[in-house]
Structure formats: C-alpha cells, structure tokens
Design goal:
single chain
Length: 615
C-alpha cells in the first residue's frame, strides 16, 4: 500500500514538471517580437568611438540667448562718458594698468576721465555678462587670432567682436547687421560672403573673420591709425574723413572724437574698456565660466548630400543646439548641397570619427527619410487651408484632360462658354490669364475638358445663365480679389502675441482686426478668440448683372425678389453665432452695417436676440 502511494506521488511530480516545461515552451513561442525603427537599426551597426565629450548646457544656451548682446549694445549707444560712476578702482592704479596695456599694444591707450567712467560702469553693471563672454571667448578667440595673424592685424581687435555682437554669431542689429562682426548685407557681398536662402556666411566665424581682417587691413592703409580704423568700422570711412576735416586736419581719434557720430564717440572707449576687463578680470574678481568644447576640439567634414540638423542630431546622439552653435551660417538648420560647391559640417572630434566611419549608412538613412517623407492628412488639414489640397488634386486631374480651343463669338460671355464645356468661370480665367470677366470678340480661349461643347437652345441657355451663372461670375470675381484672405477665419491668442504680430501673420492690419473684433485698444487677452478674415466683399458686380438684366425680363423679377427679401429681414441669433458669421450669410453686409442697424456698440450678441438686416 505504501509503495502504491509513493508511485502515485512520483508520477504526479513528473507530470507537473512536464506541464511546466510545455508552458515555458509555449511562452517562448508566443513572445512578441519588438520592432525597432530604421534609425535605431542603423545606429546599432555604427562603429562606436569611446571618446565622449560632455557639453555644458549653460554654455550651449548662449547660442539662442541675445540678452548680453542687447545689454551691451544699449550700453554703448546710450552710455554717458561724462557721468562719474561710483566703483572701487583708484584712478592712479587704473592709469598704471592702462600704461602697461599701451606698452604691449599698437593702440594708443591713454587715460582720460571718459574711459575711466566706462570701465567703472562695466565693472558695476556687467560683471556677470563678462564672465559669460569670457567662456565664449575660449571658443572664438583662437579663430580670430589665427585670421588676424595672417593679415598682420593686431590681435587685440578680437575684443571688437565682443563690442559688436557679444560673441553671438546669430546677433542681428535693428539695421540688419548680422553675425559676430555685424556686417551689413552690402558689405558682406562686397567681401564675397555668400548670402542666400540656406546660407549666410556673415554668421560663419571663419569666413566673416577673414572678411573683417581684410577690411581692417584696407582701412589701416588709408588712415594709418588703428583707433581710426575702429571708428571707420563703426561709422564708415566717410564720417571719419569728415571729422578729420572739421577738426582742422588732426589725425588722432581723441582729437577728432567730438566731430564723430554720437555712437562712435562711445564705441572706441567701449572697445578699450572691454580690453581692460579681459586683461585684468582676475584683479576684479571676474571668474570665467569654462566652456567644455573649444575650437581646437572640433573638426569639419565635407557633406555629400543635403541633410538636416535633426537628422544629424538623431544619428550622432547630440543636441541640435550644439550643431547650431558650431554651424551658425546655415540659416534653416539644413546643410545644403549645391552641385560644384563645397559645404562643410563642423562637429566635435569624436562625432567626426563616428560620422566618417559610418558615412555610407548615414547617407543611406538620409536618402531613405527623403523618399518616405510624408505628413499625416489630419495634420496637413490643420496646418494649411483645405483649398490648397483641393487645388493640387484638381491640377492633377486637369493635367489628364485634353486641351481644346474655343473662338469667342459675338454675344458670348464667360458664363455661357463655361456652361458649354461644363467647366467653371474661375478655371476659364486661370487657363487664359484673364484678370476680369470680360473677353474680347474673336479671341481663342484654352479649355481643359473631357467633353465637347454642349450646345443648348440660345434662349433657354440665356434664361438659365441669367439667374445661375451671372451670380457665379460675380462670386468668382470676388474670390479672385479676395483669394489672399483664404486664411483661418478665427485665431486664438497665444503667449507673446500682440495685434501687430497677428496682423502681420495673416496679412491684414491692426485697424481691421480692431474693427472685426470691436476692440477699443491694442490690448488683447491670452486665450481670446479673434476674427481674422476681412468682411466678405460685395458679391454682386453691377456691370455684369446689369448686362444680364438687359438681356431678359425674367432677371428683373429675380433681382426684385432677392432685394425685397434682403430688405427689413429679421435674424434671430443662434448659439455659436458671431457678428462675422452672421454677416457672411448676407452678401454685401458687413459687421459695421449690422452694428449700425441694431445699435450694437461692444459687439456682444446673445442667443435669441433679434437682429435687423438691411434695416
């Protein structure tokens, strides 16, 4: 009996283990396969370079931060050198330091009260800014020094970029001067800097510095004085020449300074003050924020196919902001590819190693993305007017249609011709570049249609067209005039918006926005819904309709009926209505009309409210 029980227990144990193994096998078999993206599959095959550089995020933010540039520019333009600043810096000590700077510089650095005031002003108000600027200088100054050494330009002129742009390659002045050296468009072109839709080499540290170096050399050959070269860089050589004449032929900056433009009077002192702060920052407790990535830690690679910064960032696992900082001359965050021209991408050295080792895979991924670049239909409908997509579909359909020609006969009009070929008046005008609804007798019109002309009884056609097609002609003409207004009808105010920016975005004016939305001031609240589109233009074209009326008495009765319906009609406001939506229901009626007929002042209407139309 005991043996029998033991046998039962052993058999049960074995059966349980077999079942467990079968379950485990089943689990292994039904375990889902996790799909990975094409990007991940490409990156998984990359040869890794073990060198890794940590990028200081605070330093990377300098790319998009223009606060230092704005502050310094404002200081230089408004600073008063005659105002004494209370800051601890003995005058005798300052004189000694300026004399030491003068001894090792080609600039004529002399003490004067105005220079002391500017230095003290920077020390009092801009210490933190200069700490940040010194971290940026570790990247840019080696570029400047290399370019200046080739042209025998004083290396101290590197400090001029601090004054000009606060070392921000994306800095743009109110006048349009751009980049580290603040070149205007014309000057940039004069010094062969490439400027197009994709590239602006005024923001390229290497090319812009070479151009600045060339300019400095040229101006020194004219004036023979580096302070005057700086003055000419700010105000132009013409203003410096005038100042020399007005001073009686004096050729030193400090002697002609009072005859220069006001901004230039503070420009050279600001440059000298910047030089002083960089030279004696330790003595004043200015501790530079250290930049991790420096220029000598980067390298370039020539690009063989157009690619975006996002693609590069995804492939190389690096922030786009870093690519932007290292490649500021590419305006659209895209490295273009022009046939016969060379374009380079600057990256940290370890990323260059990854790029070069995996070039074929990188270009294959870029090509794959370009071929499969699509936009979801729902997103497309939100980001662009529906009319665009309808127009594209219509163009595709029309391209397959046979082109016919029709010679305009006496008594013809666009409505009659459109009816014959079962096409719209708008299309007829587009195919033949017609600006109005009038068409010359004997002209050959191009028509894209799959059918031959439908010939009707002339009287029957005329009677039908008088009612149906003349209104279509007028609507088509109005659509032509107002086609630029095919923007969203309403807009929700977002953070940072103002009436000016919204008007510019939608191609309208502040006055029209205020009228459409019954605004009494320029202030708008966050989240407020604004009506954007202009009032619908009057649809009826007098000349076209008058001609149609004259041709058939039935049109008179039609117009009288329509007019009598419009006069004195009452409209009851429904939920969701606005003055704009109501005005659209009545051709030729504007928001101002409805407000005037109903003594509405603030534009507020409520459901159930009775409005007079054409009252």
């Amino acid at each position: 009996m005991i043996v029998k029980k033991i046998a039962i227990v052993v058999s049960a144990f074995f059966s349980i283990s077999v079942v467990a193994q079968n379950v485990a096998k089943a689990d292994a078999e039904i375990k889902p396969v996790v799909k990975i993206s094409y990007l991940d599959s490409v990156k998984s095959t990359f040869k890794k370079n073990e060198l890794a550089t940590r990028v200081d995020s605070l330093w990377m933010n300098e790319l998009v931060s223009l606060d230092i540039y704005d502050d310094l520019t404002k200081d230089i333009q408004t600073i008063n050198t005659d105002v004494t600043v209370d800051e601890e810096l003995p005058t005798d000590l300052l004189k000694q330091r300026l004399q030491a700077m003068n001894g090792k510089s080609p600039f004529n650095i002399e003490y004067n009260q105005g220079l002391e005031n500017i230095i003290k002003s920077f020390l009092k108000n801009r210490k933190k800014s200069f700490s940040r600027l010194m971290s940026l200088s570790e990247y840019y100054f080696p570029i400047f020094e290399d370019a200046f050494a080739k042209q025998n330009v004083p290396l101290e002129i590197k400090y001029l970029a601090v004054v000009e742009s606060a070392l921000n390659p994306k800095a743009v002045s109110k006048m349009g001067a751009t980049g580290l050296w603040q070149f205007m468009y014309g000057t940039g072109k004069q010094y062969a800097l490439k400027i197009d839709s994709y590239i602006d080499e005024r923001s390229d540290p290497l090319r812009a510095t070479a151009a600045a170096s060339e300019y400095m050399t040229k101006m020194f050959s004219i004036f023979g004085d580096w302070e005057l070269v700086l003055a000419s860089y700010n105000s132009g050589p013409g203003n410096v020449t005038k100042a020399i004449r007005r001073s009686g032929g004096k050729t030193k900056y400090w002697d002609i300074r009072s005859h220069l433009p006001k901004e230039t009077q503070g420009y050279v002192p600001a440059f000298l003050a910047t030089m002083y702060l960089f030279e004696y920052h330790k003595e004043h407790g200015i501790n530079p924020q250290r930049a991790v990535v420096k220029n000598f830690e980067t390298d370039t690679v020539q690009i063989k196919s157009q690619m975006s910064f996002k693609q590069i960032a995804d492939l190389l696992d690096m922030p786009q902001s870093q690519i932007q900082l290292l490649n500021p001359s590419y305006k659209l965050n895209v490295v273009p590819f022009y046939q016969g021209e060379e374009h380079y991408l600057r990256l940290p050295k370890e990323k260059i190693a990854t790029f070069v080792s995996n070039e074929d895979k990188i270009y294959a991924y870029v090509a794959y993305q370009s071929q499969n670049k699509t936009i979801p239909v729902q997103l497309a409908m939100r980001t662009a007017p529906r009319a665009k997509y309808m127009a594209k579909a219509k163009e595709k359909e029309e391209s397959s249609k046979e082109i016919q020609f029709y010679k305009v006969r006496k008594g013809d009009n666009l409505g009659a011709i459109a009816e014959k070929y079962n096409v719209s008046i708008v299309d007829l005008k587009k195919w033949n570049n017609l600006k109005s609804n009038s068409v010359a007798f004997g002209r050959n019109l191009k028509i894209k249609s799959e059918i031959e002309a439908v010939v009707k009884n002339p009287k029957e056609a005329k009677a039908t067209l008088a009612i149906d097609k003349k209104s279509e002609e007028a609507i088509a003409s109005a659509d032509d005039k107002d086609k630029n207004n095919a923007q969203p009808q309403e807009y929700v105010v977002a953070a940072g918006d103002n009436l000016g920016s919204i008007a510019k975005k939608f191609g309208t004016t502040i006055a029209e926005l205020k009228e459409l939305n019954s605004l009494t001031s320029n202030n708008i609240g966050l989240g407020k819904t604004l009506v954007i589109s202009k009032a619908v233009p009057e649809i009826v074209e007098e000349n076209a309709v008058t001609t149609a009326i004259a041709s058939n008495n039935s049109i008179d009765s039609f117009k009288k009926k329509a007019t009598s319906k419009a006069l004195g009609e009452d409209y009851y406001v429904k939920k969701g209505d606005s003055l704009y939506s109501i005005s659209k229901k009545y051709p030729g009626v504007t928001i101002s009309d409805i407000k005037k007929w109903n003594n509405i002042k603030d534009g507020d209407i409520k459901p159930g409210m009775k409005l007079k139309i054409n009252g």
